[in-house]
Structures are given as structure tokens and as C-alpha cells.
Design brief:
- The protein starts with a helix and ends with a helix.
- By secondary structure, it is mainly alpha-helical.
- It is built from 7 helices and 2 strands; from the N terminus they run H-H-H-H-H-E-E-H-H.
């Protein structure tokens, strides 16, 4: 059985996720649409496309979590819906304000979801197929850790792209949230 500290860690990461994304999107507001979409040589090219990738990947992972036999009231179906054929490079939200609104809604839902998570959720085995159809099975806590780490990884890329564009996001260290 997991301790509350283990679950509390994911609640803290959800709070950090929302806080960091808020800072990041506020910093992005200092650039116009052309600058946000400028190919800067990153893995997903631009700031906008990197942020879009995060929204898309979050939706994919949240769908996987939702299919594990636990109903989560925090996620209305329309929030997690993806167009048929979407992959990690799809541009789901070409308009900045749509992307920002979706990110805010996802972050609020993620916090609510983690808050209502059953005590035994993290100890369960997660079973799913990845985007290439490969069957996977591992402890839920590993998937949760990946979920939040993936966000941090790509947000780090965006902060670098913003610095190259002359925009400083400021302090984003996890410990700064405390």
C-alpha cells in the first residue's frame, strides 16, 4: 500500500505543472504569433508546436489513465478528445488563445484528477498500447512519473527557445513553488 506521501508527491507535481505552465504561457504572451511559431531548430521546431505537442501528449496519456478502470470526474470527454489520426506532431490548436485555454483547462483537470485519485491507484498495473501498437504493462506510478517528467522536459526546451527570443521566464525551479 502506498503512503499518502507518495500520492502527495503527485499532487505537488500537478500543482507545479500548473504553476510552471502559467508562467510559461505568460512569458509566451510577450511574443507575437509569428515569433511563437518561428522554427527555432528545436525538436518540434517552434515554441507553439512544442507547447502543442505537450497538450497532445497529455491528452494521450490521460486517455490511457482513464482506460484503467477508474472513472475520473475531472475530465469531461470533450477535454480529452483528439481528432482521428492525431499523432505527436499534429497541430491541434493553431490559434494561440485556443492552445492557452486548452492548457489551462487541462492543468485544472489534472490537479482535480490527482486530488480525487483512489489510494491504490498508484500501485495498480497500467496496461496499454503505445502509439506504435506495442503492448505495455508497468506500475501506474511509473507512468505518472513519466507523465510529469515529460512536461518538465519539453518546458525546459521552451524556456531555452524563449531566452533565445529575448524573453526570460524567470525562476521555474520546483523548489521555488514551496
Amino acid at each position: 500500500m502506498m503512503t499518502n506521501a507518495f500520492s502527495d508527491n503527485y499532487r505537488f507535481l500537478a500543482r507545479y505543472n500548473r504553476w510552471f505552465n502559467g508562467r510559461l504561457y505568460d512569458a509566451c504572451e510577450k511574443l507575437d504569433d509569428v515569433e511563437r511559431k518561428r522554427d527555432r531548430g528545436a525538436f518540434f521546431g517552434s515554441i507553439h508546436h512544442t507547447l502543442t505537442h505537450l497538450v497532445l501528449a497529455d491528452k494521450m496519456w490521460l486517455q490511457r489513465f482513464a482506460r484503467q478502470g477508474v472513472a475520473f470526474e475531472a475530465f469531461p470527454p470533450e477535454l480529452l478528445t483528439l481528432p482521428e489520426g492525431s499523432d505527436y506532431t499534429s497541430d491541434l490548436h493553431p490559434h494561440w488563445h485556443d492552445l492557452k485555454h486548452t492548457r489551462e483547462a487541462l492543468d485544472a483537470a489534472i490537479e482535480a484528477w490527482v486530488a480525487e485519485m483512489p489510494d491504490d491507484f498508484l500501485t495498480r498495473t497500467m496496461r496499454y498500447s503505445n502509439t506504435k501498437g506495442v503492448q505495455r504493462a508497468h506500475p501506474m506510478w511509473q507512468a505518472m512519473t513519466h507523465f510529469f517528467n515529460h512536461q518538465t522536459h519539453h518546458r525546459g526546451q521552451v524556456t531555452t527557445l524563449l531566452m533565445q527570443a529575448g524573453v526570460d521566464v524567470g525562476v521555474t525551479d520546483l523548489i521555488a513553488l514551496v
